[in-house]
Amino acid sequence: MVNFSLEGKVALVTGGAYGIGLAIAQALSEAGAKIVFNCSRRETVERGLASYRKLGIEVKGYVCDVTDEVAVKAMVVDIEATVGAIDILVNNAGIIKRIPMEEMAVEDFRRVIDIDLVGPFICAKAVIPGMIRKGHGKIINICSMMSELGRETVSAYASAKGGLKMLTRNICSEYGEHNIQCNAIGPGYIATEQTAPLRERQADGSRHPFDSFIISKTPAARWGSPEDLMGPAVFLASDASNFVNGHVLYVDGGILAYIGKQPK
Ligand code: NAP
Ligand code: GCO
């Protein structure tokens, strides 16, 4: 029988206070995993703890910036001591800055790369030794449409997410022999706080032009919801995907397959 169960497993979901991270953590919990999560701000961790309480999910939350290697290592040591060795890492924490490249400060470019690409490297590096000792592990990186496509104003984000696709493949290559599977989920356009500016109603109540654009580019003719990512996450976190490695599973309603609706 195909095993989707996560009973007895410990999952760390970075940036797991709300949005995609919360939905994925909820799904892993429903499949039996014990959940720990981190965010960079105390207030966000508190917000996340309240959400998990409302969902009836027992979690441990950490204030930890994924770009701070010393803090990440300390968090992993504490998790291993108080919850258990980490079986599943979801590198979800991420930011975006939408600035035309010629106007983007190098510091802004670096910060996005630091959080969206270096952060996953730091977190994976911190959990891999424990996974090797256990003889198994699952690393799920949260990539993006921008792992494949560019668009105006997101040069830093696309560079980070393209790099994250290749980091996924490299962890697969380097640690597959230790029974560690590293895959990625590539969400399409998902309705979260991160994309709220792209969906804001216009003054006259009409849809934001970008909102209409995405709906025209998506065969499913809708934005995704964080819940659309729950099943794919359980699959990639479970034994059901033990021979899937280095793969980016796009959960995008078909955007990448579609040239776009012909203008009327
Ligand atoms: P979101 O609503 O902005 O949530 C991001 C989470 O990451 C927050 O909990 C945030 O909390 C945390 N975070 C940010 N910087 C951090 C840091 N340095 N250290 C630790 N935690 C940090 O984002 P989302 O829409 O749920 O997206 C989650 C992931 O999916 C991101 O990697 C994003 O790039 C990716 N993604 C999103 C979409 C989409 O359409 N929404 C599509 C494809 C991929 P703090 O601010 O308190 O740290
Ligand atoms: C943007 C959006 C996208 C989504 C997502 C798409 O400004 O284009 O924020 O980047 O966040 O990454 O997969």
Overview of the structural elements:
This protein is of the alpha/beta class and 264 residues long. The chain has one domain: NAD(P)-binding Rossmann-like Domain (Rossmann fold, 3-Layer(aba) Sandwich), CATH 3.40.50. It contains 7 helices and 7 strands, in the order βαβαβαβαβαβααβ. Strands 3-2-1-4-5-6-7 form a 7-stranded parallel beta sheet, sandwiched between helices. Strand 1 (10-14), helix 1 and strand 2 form a beta-alpha-beta unit. Helix 1 packs across helix 7 (230-237) and helix 3 runs parallel beside helix 4 (106-134). The protein is globular. The model has no long low-confidence stretch (mean pLDDT 97). It binds NADP nicotinamide-adenine-dinucleotide phosphate and D-gluconic acid (GCO). The site of D-gluconic acid (GCO) has 14 residues, from loops.
Specify the number of helices: 7
Structural class: alpha/beta
Query: How many E strands?
Result: 7
Q: Could you give the order of the helices and strands?
A: EHEHEHEHEHEHHE
The percentage helix is 40-55%
Report the oligomer. Answer: single chain
Widest beta sheet: strand line-up: 3-2-1-4-5-6-7
CATH class, named Alpha Beta
* CATH topology title: Rossmann fold
Rg for CA atoms? 18 Å
pLDDT < 50 stretches: none
Ligand catalogue: NADP nicotinamide-adenine-dinucleotide phosphate, D-gluconic acid
Distance, first to last CA: 49 Å
User: Quick one: overall form?
Assistant: globular
User: What's the number of domains?
Assistant: 1
Q: What proportion strand?
A: 5-15%
The CATH homologous superfamily? NAD(P)-binding Rossmann-like Domain
Overall mean pLDDT stands at 97
Give a short account of the largest sheet.
Answer: 7 strands, parallel
> In the CATH classification, which architecture applies?
3-Layer(aba) Sandwich
